Amino acid sequence: MSTARPSTLPQARMRKPSACVSRRRCRRTSGSVPPTWRAMAFLLYDLLLLAATLVLLPWYLLRRSIGGKARQGLRERLGGNPGGRFKHDPSRPLIWVHAVSVGETRAAIPLLRELKASFPEARLVLSSVTETGRAIAEGIAEVDELIYFPVDLSFVVRRVLARLRPTLIVIVETEIWPNFVRAAGTAGIPVVLVNGRISDRSFPRYLRLRPLLRPVLAQIGRFCMQSVVDGERIAALGAPPEYILVTGNIKYDMAYAAAAADRAALRQNYRLPEQVPVWVAGSTHAGEEEAVLRIYRQLLAAGREVLLVLVPRHPQRFAAVAAVLAAQQFSFVRRSQLSATTPLLAPGSVLLGDTLGEMLHLYAAADVVFVGGSLVPTGGHNILEASLVHRPVLFGPHMQNFREIAARVGSAAAGIQVADEAELLAALAQLLAAPEEAAAMGERGFAFLKENAGATAATVAALRPLYQARAEHV
Question: Could you name the CATH architecture of 263-452?
Fold first, then answer.
């Protein structure tokens, strides 16, 4: 378990490639795949993806029982246009933003706000792959249209691009679908990768595909990367160095309405007693809930009055986690079953977060936050969400997907990274025993977040020339 003294770090800003990525490491490799082999590789990719789609389609229909929304989602994924609602409007530019799931959709919110403010004339279309990402997207006021991202079959993506005719495509993080990017390039539609990152685990796999990735990356007009390391990695994969910029992480630009942070009102809404310390364990994965419950039992056995709010990362696991709570004989209530008449929860019980879109509210109702996906080798989740609502944050050793954020939060003494379950117990006990220290850590986290804001503005500045050039010619 370790913390570090607060430090002031430079704001995220746009830097020229020569200033942020070494030429030696940016140099594109000389090896390449012959054009004929490359064409055969993409044809094989298309055929394999088509076969996988046909195999998985019956399973998808069975699992969803093909209700109305599921049917519409399936049609959209296969390039359909349910109800004819997506029509090209030649009088308005269109910016298509793609965010694969929940984390990317949340990260895209400040970007969508900045895009709407910077280009009010444009229609904003937001696509997602998962239904949970779509559920989060439905609450974003700046978005004009929501769609499911099409299956990456060449004939499907060409059909969707021909219908929407976007002025600009913005891909959040590193969701690069080869046929989609290549079809956009063929159609002359600029593509921008924003908040780009390449994890430690992904990088070796991508390197093996470098000869095939290079022609895809060549179709992307800007790579707005989170860090210097990410910039060097995308360059090593074949991205043109002159198009790589380090703009920082747009997650630092998240916003939370002050009115929504009324702790007393949140506690009342979630039936949490005002005077009892609350520990929220958010975005947990399989194997973490059991660890969290063991720690909770030890805190209670030590005489600590505390309440646990447990929020699994994936909705499909809500029932399984409820079964774990029941099997371990915890008194628990599902968030979805709360009402104004539900009695206040007692210390030692558990509130199971089984809804979507409430994570920030639950964090704001907490005294201490643990962010999951980090005690098990998943790569971690966004610990800045706790800092946004002024709460101290704890997280485990597996933060590969948020390595820079984790290091900087620790350096700012805005959170504590623990090595294992035992250290998590010790850190929790320490913060619960010293509420003033916990509150000060939360305030340092919020200050750190604001000190490092600015990546969104830098990102929009980077994509503006591509948008304007395309808008003038369509």
Answer: 3-Layer(aba) Sandwich (3.40)
Handedness of CA 156, 161, 164, 168 (dihedral sign): positive
pLDDT for 58: 79
What would the two tokens of residue 51 be? 């076969």
71-253+454-472: CATH class:
alpha beta
Taking phi first (over 0 means left), then psi (-120 to 50 degrees means alpha), and beta for anything else, what does residue 334 get? beta
Q: 5-9, 79-83, 396-400: which range is least confident on average?
A: 5-9
**242 included as an active-site residue:** no
357: left (phi over 0), alpha (psi -120 to 50) or beta: left
3-class SS of residue 280:
strand
Annotated domain spans of the chain: 71-253+454-472, 263-452
- Report the candidate in 400, 395, 432 with the shortest Cα–Cα distance to residue 415: 395
pLDDT tens readout for residues 108-154: 999 999 999 999 999 999 999 988 899 999 989 999 999 999 999 99
**Residue among 76, 104, 288, 289 flagged as catalytic:** 104
Which residues face 457 on adjacent strands?
A: none
Residue type, 1: M
More confident residue, 259 or 389: 389
Q: What is the pTM of this model?
A: 0.85
Half-sphere exposure of 451 (CA within 13 A, CB side): 16
| HSE-CB of 301 using CA atoms within 13 angstroms | 7
Distance of CA 431 to the CA centre of its chain: 28
- Name 463's Cβ contacts closer than 8 Å, sequence gap at least 6: 168, 170, 192, 194, 222, 224
Matching CATH topology for 71-253+454-472 and 263-452?
Answer: yes
Per-residue pLDDT tens digits for 269-292: 999 999 999 999 999 999 999 999
Distance CA 129, CA 73 (A): 10
CA–CA separation, 368 and 351 (whole Å): 15
Residue 39 pLDDT more than 90? no
User: β-pairing, 94-98 with 123-128?
Assistant: parallel
